[in-house]
Every structure is written in C-alpha cells, then in structure tokens.
C-alpha cells in the first residue's frame, strides 16, 4: 500500500511538472505564431517630470491578446520568450514599433523620449547594438530619444559584462534606465561603474511610502545617491496623490503610474500627449501645437 501511495504521489508530481512544461510549450507555439502574424501590440504609459507635471517620456509595454488563451500578461510571456530565444525577434519588433511611434509623436509636436524594456539575453546577443543603430537610422529618431530599461537584477546577475555593455550603449548616445531599482541588491560600487542616466525606484517602495515611515527614508537615500551620481530618479507605480506628495518631498525627479495614466493603446496615448502639451502651452502662454 505504501509503495502504491508513493508511486501515486510520484505520478501526481510528474503530472504537475508535465502540465507546466506543456503550458510552456503551448505558450511558446502561440507566441511564435503571434509574432509571425503581428498580433502583439504596444501600450504606452506617460512619465512626468514631478515639479511642473510636464510629460517627458512614454514607456512602451508589450501586450498580447490571443483568441484562445485570452489576454496573456508580459509577466507570463516575456519569460517564455527569454527561455526560448523568441525574445530576440520580439525585442526587435518592440524596438522598431516604439521608435517609429516616438518619431510620429515628434512629428506631431511632442518631443518625448520612448522607454523600451530590454532583457539581458537580448542585449548580450551579438549584433544587438547594430540592430539598435540600424533601427534608429531607419526610423529617423535621434538616439537621445530612446531610453533602454534594464532591470537591476538582470544587470547584477551579469555585473562584470554589464559594465562594458552599458558603456557601449552610452557611446551610441541612447539613454539607459535601471528598472525595478531597489529589488536587485545592487552594490553601490557597481552603480558607480554602470554608466546609466536614470534609476526607476520600484513600485514596492512607492507602495510603502504612505504606510511606513522608513520607506520615506529609503527613497530619500536612493534619490540622494542617484543625484550625487548625476542620475535622474523616477518612481514607478505611483497610484495616489498621497504617494506623489511624499515623492516630491523625497526630491524625486519624475513619476509614472496609474495616478496619471494606465498604459494606453496608441490612439489614447496620442490624445493624452495632445492634452498634456496643450495644457503646458496654455500655462506658459505659448501656441498650442497643431493636433
Ligand atoms: P516594468 O518595466 O517594471 O513595467 C511596469 C509595470 O507596472 C507594467 O506592467 C505596468 O503596466 C505596471 N504599472 C504601471 N503603473 C502602475 C501603477 O500605478 N500600479 C500598478 N500596480 N502597476 C503599474 P506590465 O505592463 O504588466 O509589464 C510587466 C513587466 O513585463 C514590465 O515591468 C517589464 O519588465 C516586462 N515587459 C513588458 N513589456 C516588455 C517588453 O516589450 N520587453 C521586455 N523585455 N519586457 C517587457
Ligand atoms: Mg520598465
Ligand atoms: Mg519596473
Ligand atoms: Mg519589472
């Protein structure tokens, strides 16, 4: 009896693993198909300068709706893309789409940057920088309007290689942000070696800021360190006015979050920019840009 029970448990366990593996295989096949059929889209979320509320950038976030699977979150399909190598094709598509969109915003009179999330696997692949340069040239976007977001944990995992990689990006003239900052156990000595322009304070710290006094202290410290290194500091996941006020007290430079806008499809993103720039122009007495 003991043996069959043990066998049963074993079977159950392996069935569980199988299910996981099967789901991954199914997801991979569907993602491959979605890329081929151009079924992914990008949503854009504004990044605002905190003191005056100007929109300075838009972050591109990949979206996938599959007829059978429904809406699949990036948290599910990005890891699959990374594990299967599809991230190269996906990443190249995201980069081109986001840069082309940014160029159109510029032509409409909204000179914002576009932030593109990139995975370490992707950037370490041979030819990545050539692909970036090629895309920028083709689209006609100046490098300084492209911001590459790399997570702190990815950078720390490959710390030694990352130092050289980031220097190379700098030489291209693109901006670099460290995403999810505060969750990846950065050593400050590395931060000093990383040639980056901005750190993005992870939303877990932002969430704590109105409930825990020490969270304010932590953010103040991050901002002070960032500023001492000449970096901009943006807080992500800002949902309430309360949080935003605390961030202003912490001398945070920029904010991004549901308080201002959720990630939006291109049409809504354009409307958001139109309104934001019209308001800014009215406030400063300039002409309203053409719509
Ligand atoms: P991330 O780059 O840190 O993006 C921030 C995430 O927080 C996004 O989730 C965004 O929708 C969400 N968010 C923004 N504001 C708020 C807020 O006020 N409250 C809350 N609760 N959430 C907020 P999303 O779009 O599901 O993306 C998750 C992650 O997937 C991203 O985290 C990024 O690491 C990755 N990702 C998304 N698109 C791409 C892509 O094109 N390439 C790569 N490599 N990764 C991507
Ligand atoms: Mg990001
Ligand atoms: Mg983040
Ligand atoms: Mg993240």
From TrEMBL:
Parent-protein start and end of this portion: 547 to 837 of 858
Name of this protein: Diguanylate cyclase
EAL domain residues: 24-277
């Amino acid at each position: 009896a003991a043996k069959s029970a043990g066998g049963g448990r074993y079977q159950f366990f392996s069935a569980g693993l199988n299910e996981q593996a099967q789901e991954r295989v199914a997801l991979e096949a569907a993602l491959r198909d979605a890329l081929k059929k151009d079924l992914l889209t990008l949503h854009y979320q504004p990044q605002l300068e905190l003191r005056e509320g100007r929109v300075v950038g838009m972050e591109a976030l990949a979206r996938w709706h599959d007829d059978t699977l429904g809406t699949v979150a990036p948290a599910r399909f990005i890891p699959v893309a990374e594990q299967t190598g599809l991230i190269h094709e996906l990443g190249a598509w995201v980069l081109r789409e986001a840069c082309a969109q940014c160029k159109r915003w510029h032509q409409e009179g909204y000179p914002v940057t576009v932030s593109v999330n990139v995975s370490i696997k992707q950037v370490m692949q041979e030819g990545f920088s050539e692909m970036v340069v090629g895309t920028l040239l083709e689209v006609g976007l100046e490098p300084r309007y492209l911001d590459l977001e790399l997570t702190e944990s990815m950078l720390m995992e490959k710390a030694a290689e990352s130092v050289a990689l980031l220097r190379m990006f700098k030489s291209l003239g693109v901006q670099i942000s460290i995403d999810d900052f505060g969750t990846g156990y950065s050593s400050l000595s590395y931060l000093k070696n990383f040639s980056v322009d901005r750190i993005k304070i992870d939303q877990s710290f932002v969430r704590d800021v109105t409930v825990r006094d020490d969270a304010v202290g932590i953010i103040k410290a991050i901002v002070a360190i960032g500023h001492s290194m000449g970096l901009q500091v943006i807080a992500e996941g800002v949902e309430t006015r309360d949080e935003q006020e605390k961030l202003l007290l912490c001398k945070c430079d920029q904010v991004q979050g549901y308080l201002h806008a959720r990630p939006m499809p291109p049409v809504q993103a354009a409307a958001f920019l139109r309104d934001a720039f019209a308001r800014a122009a009215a406030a400063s007495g300039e002409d309203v840009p053409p719509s």
